[in-house]
# Entry
Amino acid sequence: MAAVHTDAPGKDKPAKKPDPGQVSDVAGGFAGTATQWSPETGDPDIAAAFLLGWRVGVARDWVTKGEHVPWPDDDPGLGGDPPGMWAVLSGQMGHAAARLSNRAGLPALPGAPPQKDAEEVEQFRVKTLQALYITEHFRGLAFTLGYELEALCGGAQADVAAAIPAAKQQLLVLATKLPPHAAHSILNSLVLWEEQLERHRGEPDVAKLRIQGGVWRSVLSADVAAKDLLHLSDYVGTSEQVAARLHDFAKRALARDLLLPAAAVLLLAVAGLVLLLFSQTAAAGAGTLLAAFGLSWKGVGQYFGKAAAQGEQSLWNGQLDWAIAYRSTISLTAPQARPMRARLGARRAGRKLPGGRRRRAGHYETWQAWQLDWPEFELDR
# Structure
């Protein structure tokens, strides 16, 4: 049988260097890579730990008040049977605690209020929290966030505005672990609540706060994907906001004495492109240099395309988190249309505020404008 020869490199045959290709391959490599955004992920166990903490908070409220105050997302099938609802709630708590902590020593809470008291619920909370922290500290953090956010929205916190900063800090710690867009969008929604509480200078509407809590719980527990709250008009508004951000960035960059350096860089870039496209000698020389380093024109385009995609994805995701917050935040008062003079006056006054306060006020004004332009949030009806 005749020997079969292959072109695979061996010890006596050096590997073939890559062909740098044509200069036009840069555009193809850039376009093919710039749109490949990395998917966002979350840890389902972190969302489950948050939901467990929320349910323990519901149990605490129940035994403290002596009755169950319904949440907007309660199961209506058991609404007329408090013992049955308590059996489901305690069973959910016990099952989730045992699964998340890998321990069987965390039973459900039998019986039902008023036989149960707050001390028994507190003992269950402490044992569960200890077990979760031992298993993975992020589960303990998520459990605490759920417990305290339920207290904030359920009326257990006397000062809502004072409790918001702690919730925001916990969301930042868990941002990578929670479902995609959940942590930052809810954090942004809390920022909008801070601003409207400060502006209205009054006690928040208890009913609206409970509705808001139901929305936050659904998103953070992954019962509802954050982006599912958006309408088509919200994506249009997000695109407009991204374009406005890029425009503002360009204006600020040019205003800070970058006009001449930017013009020089642009001139050099144009000159280099013309040289590569119309000078075969220069293009061939550059291609040989690329091949010497094991590169190609397409590889160069993919490298810069990946860098561009990362920046574009970050900008888009950041603005999308605000769009979700605009759509999912309950307003304490109906937005009022204001004449152009009033809006310009508010904008000038906002520039005098400190940086963080100015950005918060700016997002509040944008949120108010969105409610006037696209009043389609079903929970506000």
